[in-house]
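Format notes (please read before filing issues)

Several people have asked whether sequences and structure tokens are stored in separate files. They are not. Every record keeps both together, in the order shown below: the sequence lines, then the token lines. Line labels are part of the format and must not be stripped during preprocessing.
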Amino acid sequence: MPATYTIDSDRKLVLSRIWGAATEDEIRDHGQRLRIDPAFRPDFSQLIDMRELTEILVGSKLVRDAALNQFFLPGVRRAFVATSDIAFGMAQMYAIQSESAGQTIEVFRDMKTAEAWLNSSSA
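Then the structure lines:
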């Protein structure tokens, strides 16, 4: 499955990774598994690594539905890292549509900048 996550309770961070060809079922499954994981806390930040994503088999309806069905608390920082233009654009679309649900999501081209932004939230 090209979508996994780990929960770092010490850092209060969910680290998600999506690679290969991402399908709607895999993205939905990732969210459902995370949502019911007993270690998940909705006040944790999230870092989503999409740098190895090779194909996006996800339609705009799923992006819109996911943006409206949030399980992270409003205002929690979430960073997407995408190097391809297609993945970056899809992540941007999700971030913009998530604003109406009070989400704070930024999209970055490199991991170092994304991590710096996430870490600046504790300042």
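For reference, the curators noted about this record: The first helix runs from residue 24 to 36. The longest strand covers residues 45-57.
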